[in-house]
Amino acid sequence: MAISYRDAVFLYCLKQIKDERSIYSLFHLFQGKKSSQTIQDAHLYKLTPFFRALPLITRIELETIVKEFVSRGFLEQVASENFVLTIEGETELNVFQKCVTIPPKFLEGWKYHHLTTLFWERLSLLVQVSSNLINKNKGFIPIQNKQETQEWFKKFLKMQNANRYELAEQLYIELTECLHQEKSIEPAVLVLRLTGHNKIGLTSEQAAERLDMTTTHYHLEFLNILHYMIKTVSTMRNDFPLLSSLVQDVQKEVPLTLSTEKTFQLLDKGYVPNEIAAMRNLKMSTIEDHIVEIALHVKEFELNRYVHPDIEKRIMEVASKTSAKKLKQIRDQVDGANYFEIRLVLARNGGQKWN
Amino acid sequence: MELEQALFHYFQFNTFRKGQREVIDSILSGQDTIAMLPTGTGKSLCYQLPGYLLKGKVIIISPLLSLMQDQVEQMKALGEKRAVAINSFLLPFEKKQILQQLDRYKFIFVSPEMLGTELIVSKLKELDIALLVIDEAHCISQWGYDFRPDYLKIGQVRKALNRPLTIALTATATEEVRHDIAKYLQLEKWKEFVFSVDRPEISIGMEIVGHQEKQKRIVELVESLEGPGIIYFSSKKIAEQMASKLRDRGQQVMAYHGGLDQEARVLIQQQFIHGQLNIVCATSAFGMGINKENVRYIIHYHMPLQLESYLQEIGRAGRDGKNSLAILLYTPGDEQLSIQLAEGEIPDREQINMLFHVIEQQQLSLTKITENEELFIRSCGFSETQWRIVANYIASRESMKPSEVKEKFYHYITERLRIKKEKIAMVLEYLQYRGCKRTFILNYFKEKAASVKVNCCSSCGLDLNDFQKNTNLTHANTQNYNWEQELASMLLK
Ligand SMILES: [Zn+2]
């Protein structure tokens, strides 16, 4: 029996984390947990595309999938929560990847997770309202009923200079233009979901069935197309004035977690980690987690304020030579380096390269 | 004729439906009113039209969040922008914003639990209130099948608001319940309107089928009956299974239940209303507030928990006045499932023991119950419904000793469970009754038997051939999908 799309995604991710991370780290990744550990791991193991890609996954589902892989001979258990792919597992994955790209080409969970839902809700509402406006149909139920989205939309509509026909036509032109530009995507994945004046869009389950995809496959293709659109319209604002304005008001950079933001501000004021830990009544290790998160996010971060250049160099040497990601292996080989320094160096160098 | 003109002006209807005119007249003459109107006769018009004709705000207390949201959406869809819902769905900043500009709205929907907060009540006090509407007013009574302890607060709030003109609306209420409504709302003088719960255009069927044959029978019915239709289930899982089975046989069908995300719920409702779906396999979450005129049949896969909810659910058929069919499939023993469901809705003794054990151990004050919601839900394993009952019960007894509250709470849940079991026993009695099913229901609501001559019920004689599909439509769903054409048809004129 060939493996399913979902199987392939899980095998791919398990392969990336090797036996170095617990399978539950994937659970946090798919859910998009905003902890320093999850964010760091995503960068370290090149799994950023999958950040918050399957938010509905449960622990039990994950465990079931892993158990199944073991019984099918794709995985081998090395510790209670750690597994490696067997040769058979690798082969299955390779065969699958010859036909289907994993991750999907434009999937950028980490980069866009805070924009994805927003963009979809606004876009689908814009299409529905435009379609009803040009058909002079006032009595319709908005398919997006979040107060936030509706309030935003009212303001948005007021700011438009074009009349209803021009607005709808502009939307049509931008959508077709954007969806035509990239051959690797399937526009039906998106368009089937849209609601117009006399046609209600499909749910994701219905769209998946219609396109003969499994739900996981469909869901990732849907995210893929949204991420493709967000990327395209925001890099080519002039070509897509209407679509790009859907996310114009939102912060483009991924925000820091709230607690990290506070630490960041204090560091900026010149406090040292020890002082911050004492001031905020937090453990030193927590503050260190924050600093690693900052290193991943903030371009201007000065690594050498925390790690001596020599130690940085040696850590990188060992890390690249052994391709080891286990902190302990690195520490054993680099005298005088502590875990915090190693994590920081890996975050900085890994993060920069992969971002 | 003035009223008819207003009806046309605001709703584009030419005539009132049964009962509406009398109820509206009563309100406009300044009388507190209790009105019992059958489902599907346009209850909401009874407060919306007076709302337009009276100066001041209309406050509507409505029990179900989803229902409230639907009503606001529907009003907005009809062009009424001044409708708003205040409930726990709102994010704090949204709530703040709405409360700051509350005066801008005309129709303000409030969920009953919100009435417990000082802030909301004081904001409402600042308003000029023309009419207070209690929707689904049977929720105020312990005898009502859908008792909501929050509703008991309404009487107090009504007093705090200086007893504004009040209308209590319900589709199903026995005399006891109507008595409770007046009592708890603290009405002094009121007018009561009771219109028959009978819907002669709906034929009431029941079939006894074996456990193994139920699904097969559903398939047969669905394939032969004229749609659209709704099939009700007590279980999400079976609703899903059945939907997928029917879909495999070429039906346009989806399952609808509380486990779906918000977007999917809206889409499925709208697909059904727009005729893109012919059947919905639903749990009781579906149907409240849905205005679809041409539903031709309602099938119950599981037995309902009360005759009251059964009547509401089958009342969603035939709103266009055309003949429609209700069929309940019963397998002897189904009542066991009903009892299990009823028990699951109420916290059990063990959970209550655990609750008070935690309170004691952590030395928590009863006033801090809601603040520790998560702790209790986790440690006692409460479901959402169970927790609502617990929080409510304790909130109104904060000043008592925990041990006392515990004893009383035991007593309270025992009583609640007893009432629920009685209701189930009544449904069972109905199922086993060999006489006219319609008469049984009418008698239950203290009404006299009405005479329906043709296809009254399965006891009097019911010919399913009269509800057969005329044509066998096959859906051409296999044609190629052209996304560009689809976009063009949405956005180009
Ligand atoms: Zn009869």
From TrEMBL, chain A:
Protein name: Helix-turn-helix domain-containing protein
Recorded superkingdom: Bacteria
InterPro entries in alphabetical order: Helicase_HTH, YpbB-like
Classification via Pfam families: HTH_40
Species per Swiss-Prot/TrEMBL record: Mesobacillus maritimus
Domain Helicase Helix-turn-helix: 259-346
Automatic annotation (TrEMBL), chain B:
All copies of domain Helicase C-terminal, residue ranges: 217-367
Residues in the signal sequence: none
Pfam families the record matches: DEAD, Helicase_C
Keyword RNA-binding: no
Assigned keywords, A-Z: ATP-binding, DNA-binding, Helicase, Hydrolase, Nucleotide-binding
InterPro entries in UniProt: DEAD/DEAH_box_helicase_dom, DNA/RNA_helicase_DEAH_CS, DNA_helicase_ATP-dep_RecQ, Helicase_ATP-bd, Helicase_C-like, P-loop_NTPase, WH-like_DNA-bd_sf
Domain of life: Bacteria
Gene Ontology molecular function, alphabetical: helicase activity
SMART domains: DEXDc, HELICc
Record-annotated Helicase ATP-binding domain positions: 24-191
CDD domains to which the protein is assigned, alphabetical: DEXHc_RecQ
NCBIfam families: recQ_fam
PANTHER family linked to this entry: ATP-DEPENDENT DNA HELICASE RECS-RELATED (PTHR13710:SF84), DNA HELICASE RECQ FAMILY MEMBER (PTHR13710)
Protein name according to UniProt: ATP-dependent DNA helicase RecQ
Organism of provenance: Mesobacillus maritimus
